[in-house]
Write a structure and sequence with these properties.
By secondary structure, the protein is of the alpha/beta class. The protein folds into two domains: 137 residues, 3 Solenoid (UDP N-Acetylglucosamine Acyltransferase, domain 1), CATH 2.160.10; 62 residues, Udp N-acetylglucosamine O-acyltransferase, C-terminal domain (Udp N-acetylglucosamine O-acyltransferase, Domain 2), CATH 1.20.1180.10. It contains four helices and 28 strands. A twelve-stranded mixed beta sheet has the order 1-4-7-10-13-16-19-22-25-26-27-28. An eight-stranded parallel beta sheet has the order 2-5-8-11-14-17-20-23, with no helix packed on it. An eight-stranded parallel beta sheet has the order 3-6-9-12-15-18-21-24, with no helix packed on it. A hairpin with a 4-residue loop joins β26 and β27. α2 runs antiparallel to α3. The chain is elongated. The protein starts with a strand and ends with a strand.
Length: 262
């Protein structure tokens, strides 16, 4: 059975899993599903459309599945999903989807720090870290193991590739490819996310292949399409290089440019 504080306002229609704790003055609406072993802390608001996994921790005054801040939203029934073991800190706001994707999805093992905003139809993969006051606009896609520093706004429809690291206080206005360190204003490629890749077990050989590809992309003087063809011709198509190429070729907003030589 869940452990619900007597001052919490919890709909009888909500589904709440075993051993989940609901704190004082928390508010849970009708169309809500919460998994097992979760902690919903005091004054948190879990609104219609919330789909929360197991072992999730939602801190004080966070709001899950709020209405989209989109003038086109017409009240359609949409959802906001939070993956297992994700932590959502104080005053974070996560909006449900619109009829574009019908849902907002936050992956497993994410850390969403205080005052983060995640807008409608955003998708984050697993093990993402969004530091304090990151603001993610609608329709963005954030890959596995991405870290974004505090006070950083992310423009709508931007994609951020797996294992990328973006510094704090910057403006993300274009797609950020996988495996990179993004820095400066305007935001640019500053080299590989070497520390992150090492920590996650990428071999020296793999890191060297990725860096070689980015040197071709950013420092060869070739236009983007010709640089991609050179990479295909000259490098082994290991999975990481295939991922990089697929990301670049599918970018609609364009990718960040080079910030400095590496």
């Amino acid at each position: 059975m869940p452990n619900i504080h007597p001052t919490a306002i919890v709909s009888s229609k909500a589904e709440i899993g075993e051993n989940t704790t609901v704190g004082a003055y928390a508010f849970i609406e009708d169309d809500v599903i919460i998994g097992s072993n979760c902690t919903i802390m005091n004054h948190a608001s879990i609104l219609d459309g919330s789909r929360i996994g197991n072992e999730v921790r939602i801190h004080q005054s966070a709001v899950i599945s709020g209405l989209p801040q989109d003038l086109k939203y017409a009240g359609e029934k949409t959802t906001c999903h939070v993956g297992d073991r994700t932590v959502i800190r104080e005053f974070a706001t996560l909006n449900r989807g619109t009829d574009d994707k019908w849902k907002t999805v936050i992956g497993a093992d994410n850390l969403i720090m205080a005052y983060v905003h995640i807008a409608h139809d955003v998708i984050t993969k697993d093990k993402v870290i969004l530091a304090n006051s990151v603001q993610v606009a609608g329709h963005c896609e954030i890959g596995f193991h991405v870290t974004i520093g505090g006070m950083t706004p992310v423009h709508q429809f931007v994609r951020i590739g797996d294992h990328a690291f973006i510094g704090g206080g910057l403006r993300v206005h274009k797609d950020v490819p996988p495996y990179v360190l993004a820095m400066g204003e305007p935001l640019g490629y500053g080299g590989l996310n070497k520390v992150g890749l090492e920590r996650r077990g990428f071999s020296v050989e793999t890191r060297e292949e990725i860096q070689k590809a980015y040197r071709t992309l950013y420092h060869s003087g070739l236009i983007r399409s010709d640089a991609i063809e050179r990479i295909k011709d000259e490098q082994e198509m290991i999975p990481e290089i295939e991922t990089l190429i697929a990301f670049i070729e599918s970018s609609e907003r364009g990718t960040i440019t080079a910030k400095r030589r590496t």
